[in-house]
From TrEMBL:
InterPro entries: Diguanylate_Cyclase, GGDEF_dom, HisKA_7TM, Nucleotide_cyclase, PAS-like_dom_sf, Rev_trsase/Diguanyl_cyclase. GO terms for molecular function: diguanylate cyclase activity. This is Diguanylate cyclase (GGDEF) domain-containing protein. GO terms for biological process: cell adhesion involved in single-species biofilm formation; negative regulation of bacterial-type flagellum-dependent cell motility. GO terms for cellular component: plasma membrane. Pfam families: GGDEF, HisKA_7TM. The chain crosses the membrane at residues 6-24, 36-55, 61-86, 98-117, 137-160, 172-196, 202-222. Residues 415-561 form the GGDEF domain.
Length: 566
């Protein structure tokens, strides 16, 4: 066996040792296991190259050769994926894009395994230790070059972008050296061992050496910048579990850190520039946006916040945006810490409570209206209680309640007043002759005549049966006599027509009046018991009415109150 074949095995062992070292010395998450996938693919090349030289069976030799190139085909996609992690672009990688990233590599690997018509590799001298490559080999090389070119574009873009944090730029620069070393050795291997194989002897292990050296650059980046450091990973996990959106901006307002929750609030990623003015102009704001923006730009040691409203999936979402400056030990501003808190549910509850309060207020107003209507109904009911239903005059109860207090006030302030009690003459005969229906009509028509004959300030009441009493405030004896005569004449001239050709009825009234207008007894006290005094007044005016009836009816008689009897 050619001693040079042990060269590939040695490189395989070294790569395996490096992989064990990295796995043993760093604490990783599932997210970063992509490196070990990449590292495993790198290990397959030298191992399979070595294994193909240990057997004389052409079938096994072909198997190891194809397996090594399958690993190489997939190595390009692994390299690109690792590049995305190193540059910080992996968070923008959707599931669909991740699948598309591996499609070219899988197509190349399928062509390698199928090896139709020996379009990939063909044996020389009866085996595959010495071999020639067909067109599909160059297809695989083209896919690999495409992956590496894409990785280079992404890395150079990260290096020269002002949005890329300084630490990531350093990681990318070192990784670029690893790509350069691998590309140099892989190109040298293709030129010397493929293109010039007819004229030059085979030099084994060039690509394996390039893979090993480039992997050392990756290991340096991992160890130097603590890519898999447990504290950093734990810190990131804690930040990502917080339900509030968190973004860290540097002094140039470039996003250097953003947790997963922030993606639900804004469509920005690490490396993007954040313009607070543009953001506020694109959303609805509750509060003073200018004042908030001024505080934000001044970078004072002061927490400022504002509520923003964003339309999302056809719904309005309310967020509390808080901004606080990040300063060093000398209080020099280094950037901003932004937090987004979703308060949509709280606003919904507040809106619901306001609506319920408004509904309750409307119900209270309705209850007030019902209360007012009930009060009006009670007033009307009280009027019904205090009003005679037949004649619509006040009844005796109302008169008693009204005069019980007023007559005492009149005596206290020496204001004259009069009472007039009248009775329909021969009313019983009318009822007996014409019936109660006609009697009721006589009462109604008499009440109308009385109502038209008295003043608006006088109080007309149905005292009982066919008797009516009129209270005349501020009325002296002479005026009371005039009003009484006017009332008597109005009733006498009021002809009541009967239905069904029964003719007309002419009625008369007897009137008794009592006037309280002589206040000569000024030294006498005002009676304390208004009810007893009122009974005396009613008794005096009733006696005057009795005298009018005794003297022939249809006349007015004046009564006198007995003094000193209270």
């Amino acid at each position: 066996m050619n001693p040079l074949v042990w060269y590939d095995l040695s490189l395989f062992v070294l790569l395996f040792g490096v992989g064990v070292y990295v796995f043993a010395t760093v604490r990783i998450t599932n997210l970063h296991k992509v490196y070990f996938l990449f590292h495993g693919l790198m290990m397959m090349w030298p191992f399979c190259q070595f294994a193909s030289t240990l057997t004389d069976d052409p079938g096994l030799q072909l198997f190891y050769v194809l397996l090594s190139f399958v690993a190489v085909s997939l190595l390009g996609s692994g390299w690109l994926l690792l590049t995305l992690f190193i540059t910080g672009y992996a968070e923008r990688l959707s599931q669909r894009r991740l699948v598309m990233l591996f499609v070219p590599a899988v197509i190349g690997a399928i062509g390698v395994v199928a090896n139709p018509w020996h379009d990939f590799v063909m044996p020389l001298e009866g085996g595959y230790i010495e071999r020639a490559y067909g067109p599909w080999f160059w297809v695989v090389m083209f896919i690999l070059v495409s992956y590496f070119v894409t990785s280079l574009v992404i890395m150079f873009r990260a290096v020269f972008s002002s949005k890329t944090p300084a630490m990531i730029k350093k990681q990318v620069k070192i990784t670029l050296w690893g790509i350069f070393v691998l590309a140099m050795f892989a190109t040298l291997d293709a030129v010397l061992n493929v293109l010039l194989s007819r004229w030059l002897p085979i030099i084994p292990g060039l690509t394996s050496l390039g893979i090993f050296l480039s992997d050392l650059f990756f290991v340096y980046v991992i160890k130097r910048y603590n890519v898999f450091n447990l504290v950093s990973i734990a810190h990131e996990d804690v930040i990502n579990t917080i339900p509030y959106g968190i973004m860290v901006l540097d002094e140039n307002e470039v996003i250097v850190e953003a947790n997963k929750a922030s993606r639900a609030f804004v469509e920005h990623h690490v490396g993007d520039t954040w313009d607070m003015g543009v953001f506020l102009a694109g959303v609805s704001v509750e509060g003073n946006a200018r004042k908030f923006l001024n505080k934000y730009r001044l970078k004072k040691m002061e927490l400022c916040q504002i509520e923003v409203i964003v339309e999302k999936d056809g719904q309005l979402c309310h967020y509390i945006l808080q901004s606080s400056p990040i300063v060093d030990s000398a209080l020099a501003p280094l950037g901003h810490l932004l937090t987004f808190q979703d308060v949509s549910q709280e606003r919904f509850y507040a809106k619901t409570m306001n609506q319920q309060y408004k509904t309750l207020q409307e119900r209270n107003e309705a209850l007030d209206l019902i209360g007012q209507e009930l009060s009006d109904a009670n007033r009307k009911l009280e009027e019904l209680v205090l009003t005679d239903s037949l004649t619509q005059c006040f009844n005796r109860r109302y008169l008693t309640q009204h005069l019980n207090h007023e007559v005492l006030t009149n005596l206290q302030y020496k204001m004259p007043f009069s009472l007039m009690l009248l009775d329909i003459d021969h009313f019983k005969a009318i009822n007996d002759h014409y019936g109660h229906v006609v009697g009721d009509e006589v009462l109604v028509r008499t009440a109308e005549a009385l109502r038209q004959s008295v003043r608006s300030t006088d109080i007309l009441t149905r005292y009982g049966g066919e008797e009516f009493m009129i209270y005349l405030p501020h009325t002296e004896h002479d005026l009371a006599i005039d009003i009484a005569e006017r009332v008597r004449q109005a009733v006498e001239s009021n002809r009541i027509s009967l239905n069904y050709g029964m003719g007309e009825i002419a009625i008369t009234i007897s009137v008794g009046i009592l006037s309280i207008d002589d206040f000569a007894y000024e030294d006498e006290d005002v009676p304390e018991d208004g009810e007893r005094y009122l009974i005396q007044l009613f008794d005096a005016v009733d006696k005057a009415l009795y005298q009018a009836k005794q003297k022939g009816r249809n006349r007015v008689e004046y009564g006198v109150l007995a003094r000193g009897v209270v």
